[in-house]
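note to self — DONT lose this again. spent like an hour looking for the file last time. sequence + predicted structure for the chain T wanted, 333 res
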Amino acid sequence: MKALLSKEVGGPDTLVLEDVPSPEAKAGQAVVEVKAIGVNFPDVLIIEDKYQFKPERPFSPGGEIAGIVKSVGEGVTHVKPGDRVLGNTGWGGMAQELALDANRLVKIPDSMPFDEAAAFIMTYGTSWHALKDRAQLKAGQSLLVLGAAGGVGLAAVELAKAMGAKVIAAASSQEKIDLCLAKGADSGVVYPRGPFDKEGQRALAQLFKDATAPNGADVIYDAIGDAYAEPALRSIAWEGKYLVVGFAAGEIPKIPLNLALLKGCDIVGVFWGAWVGKNPEKHRESIAELMKMYEAGKIKPYVSERFPLSRAADAIKHLASRKAMGKVVVTVD
């Protein structure tokens, strides 16, 4: 079978597509015939050894997959060969077949296409955990989403609207804002690309304040970090919650803690992957809720582009360019 492999530290150009042995299901595992793989920002980081986890090489990137169960190991009862499933893998997904712990798999309805299934669990899982568990977002509250047209950002827009919040989408182009508005955002603000000098940061802070007027944002969802973080925090409402989701813009920001004091606000970390490992039962409940919302038509992954497995490295490169909207998916024949 074919697999995209990271054999050395580096960007997408270092990845190679090679033949590797087909996996076998050990006890507690299932082998999935992969049909689609969601591309996410951790795929960019993990091949450069910049992610929280550093798997032993060679390994395949790809943190979420969808496909058909091919075989199961001893003790596996909740899935069987022939089941249509999605799964969060961490890494290893960019291959024609994958063996993983069966408890990472979730059955999907026949009405759910594989490309949408592969674009589902990481983005909606992260954003649902962020908004429901960490922010405890309430109907009527206001939410500012940075990087709103990206995978997790667009999921946050949809979920927040389903929760009854007022959503202000922030992104780097009007085209991206238009997508967010089509997905339910109440308003949008186009921010410039950095880097910013001090005057530029003040102007950006005023842009966010104007967008969240008159009271500021009750919750800020920040998946981009870098020089956008501090200006956004300056627009938060009194006793608001600032969600630290990721750093897609590059650098990890250094926040002046006097802002947290002056705003009486909470700066809240969101690490969905670790939360899943520590709370497997709550994770299953969350996924069940999200599936109900999908089947009810309240949420739907926006797959903007599809790449074949032979061009999976190009898919990761495209995501790293920050030009992609919604989700990029790799498909497997």
